Amino acid sequence: xxxxxxxxxxxxxxxxxxxxxxxxxxxxxxxxxxxxxxxxxxxxxxxxxxxxxxxxxxxxxxxxxxxxxxxxxxxxxxxxxxxxxxxxxxxxxxxxxxxxxxxxxxxxxxxxxxxxxxxxxxxxxxxxxxxxxxxxxxxxxxxxxxxxxxxxxxxxxxxxxxxxxxxxxxxx
Length: 172
Known about the structure:
By secondary structure, the protein is an alpha/beta fold. The protein has helices at about 15-25, 30-40, 45-50, 55-70, 85-95, 105-110, 125-145, 155-165, and strands spanning about 5, 30, 75, 95-100, 145-150. The protein has a 5-stranded parallel β-sheet, sandwiched between helices. Helix 4 packs parallel to helix 5. The longest helix is centred in the last third of the chain and has 19 residues, at about 125-145. The protein is globular and about 40 Å long. The mean pLDDT is about 90.
């Protein structure tokens, strides 16, 4: 396997863990949401508002297909909804070792409650919305993942150490 692929619910720590992991391993860091924003020249909430979620998911799938050819020796952090599509789960697994960063609902709520940049969390009752999405996505994350690492109550360095231990068998 040539890449680390970090998946999980928004606020699970994919970007934070990914940047440090890339630095430690001397690898490139790729955030798929940032790439889409750069390529589309507009923010994700704008893409959702103007073109809808289905279009955004199409952009994610297209990016994953292109990354099969141009992404090596990288730590890739993906948007929380990317593994929802079966095709994307397959593409993620073929791109590298998929690490599912998981966290409890209360941890996620604490991390995302003041973040207005997440269109999937728009609505009246944040706790209900997070719970619903987490239930919908949990099994999909597990289907995509080679390895699952809990981030609750662990320091960044503890999470990195666990990722390192759990991914050795994949040649990383």
